[in-house]
């Protein structure tokens, strides 16, 4: 048997090890319920670490999803201020920092695109945050990143950004991605307020309004995975990735290995993508988990491990 093509479509990078450590510590994964035995990565998500992980695991290409969360940036800035600073001065500095968030977001996206230029095996997806910049400003930013800096897709995390995936303020961005033939990857799962911001059913209006858009429902729906099969049946333009959920199959509200494999076959193996969610989980570990799932044939595993991603990203089955 030949070595399969390996493409990881769900990876994150960090500009500093301190920021990575803080985010990994503060991002509590709760939606899969009790139990589970996830094997977390020790990596801190630098480009150099990712390159080494790719070489060790045999992954030839990754999609790096820039994820910008304004409140995390503000909290990080506040913690950097001296503890004995006068309250009025602290308040003013934080307000000044907040005013500069649109520029900080743009610079973070530019950094991701520049990393991709240094590492050709990286395909960069950029991020928006409607709490930082509105629809018009965000769309103009993404257009510039696509036309001038090599951005190849869009990453959304509506659960953290506290608006629904079908928020019509995102419509101009979806139209832009449709125009350029760029995929959109949206975090999918439950949110702490149980508002349904990122549940699979929230993707339905987008898929209905933009049938030509290549929309990736991340985590196979996450903690709301039981909605995924119905969404897939109704919308053939929906794609899915197995990031994170594949590490939680022993948890009380997650699918078992058998249920996850059955779900993959139900939605259609031809539109399920390998995703590690690095640096939370390791590339090679996620590949092992895909290969350990029951029900799937070797050919179906090869589709998930890389051939589907090649078709999505390049329009090629080679």
From TrEMBL:
Highest taxon above the source species: Bacteria
Entry GO terms, CC: cytoplasm
Alphabetic keyword roster: Lyase
Alphabetized GO MF terms: carboxy-lyase activity; hydrolase activity
Family annotation (InterPro entries): ACMSD, Amidohydro-rel, Metal_Hydrolase
GO biological process, one term: secondary metabolic process
Keyword tRNA processing among record annotations: no
Boundaries of every Amidohydrolase-related domain copy: 7-314
Listed Pfam families: Amidohydro_2 (PF04909)
Protein name (database record): Amidohydrolase-related domain-containing protein
